[in-house]
Amino acid sequence: MLRFYSSFQAPASDCPGAPPLPADAIFIHDLKWRFLEADQTVCEWLGYSREELLGKTVLEVQAPEALVLLSRRMEELRQNGHIVAESALVLRDGRTIPVQISSRMIEYAGRPAVLSVVRNITERKQMEEERANLEEHLVQVQKMEAIGQLATSVAHDCSNLLFVINGRTELILGRLGRDDPMRKELAVIHKSSARAAVLVHKLLASSREEQQG
User: Fold this and answer.
1) Looking at residue 58, what is its pLDDT?
2) Which residues pair with 62 in a beta bridge?
3) pLDDT tens digits, residue range 21-47?
4) Is the pTM higher than 0.70?
């Protein structure tokens, strides 16, 4: 089995130029997915002895979401002679591990077979998930910043409008007589706009504090 591996290109290491890690697992199966050979690493990963594993098929250790892709991948393997794909293996205890599998068509014991070198990519997947979470968080922060900028712009516009309303109502109130029936209504408008102006001022002050913080 080692002679097959010596001429086989394993999945690339996370470090460019680095040799394949010894933790890569190797197995061989026939075209009906039956295990023909398995090294100690894959046995330890899956939780089976070599004898137990040789009595199983690859289908029995594939996660359900990976099973649906196997027929298509086998067809690609037959056409191209080699394929690299991600999958997930089901361990004996029911847990699953994400893996990258590099497979090649070979001849084993005089029969067509598939040699696969498997790499556990759990750590890489975790890093990808963490990066995705950070990117999502960054997008949310940027959205909140955009909303904050929009709110500040609207608050400035409102402040300018309220300034005009207050100025106009003060001017008109100054021209009306004390007994003018419109005076009471204008006083309500003036008081309400003054309150609104205070609220807008507080919003703008809060926005400036957040930007400085």
Assistant:
1) 94
2) 89
3) 446 999 999 999 999 999 999 999 999
4) no
Residue 193 burial by Cβ neighbours in a 10 Å radius (0-12, 13-18, 19+): buried
CATH number at residue 7: 3.30.450.20
Residue 208 CB neighbour total at 10 angstroms: 11
Final residue of a domain: which of 65, 94, 120?
Answer: 120
- Residue 105's domain spans which residues? 2-120
Do 122 and 97 contact (CB within 8 A), yes or no?
yes
Cα distances (angstroms) measured from residue 111 to each of 35, 73, 122, 181: 13, 20, 33, 106
Considering its fold, how many domains does the chain have in total? 2
From its phi and psi, is residue 121 left (phi > 0), alpha (psi between -120 and 50) or beta? alpha
DSSP string, 165-185: HHHHHHHHHHHS-TT-THHHH
Task: Pick the last residue of a domain from 99, 120, 141.
Answer: 120
Burial of 82-109, coded b for 16+ CB within 10 Å and e otherwise, reads ebebebbbbeeeeebbbbbbbbbbeebe
Q: Express each pLDDT in 72-86 by its tens digit.
A: 888 999 899 999 999
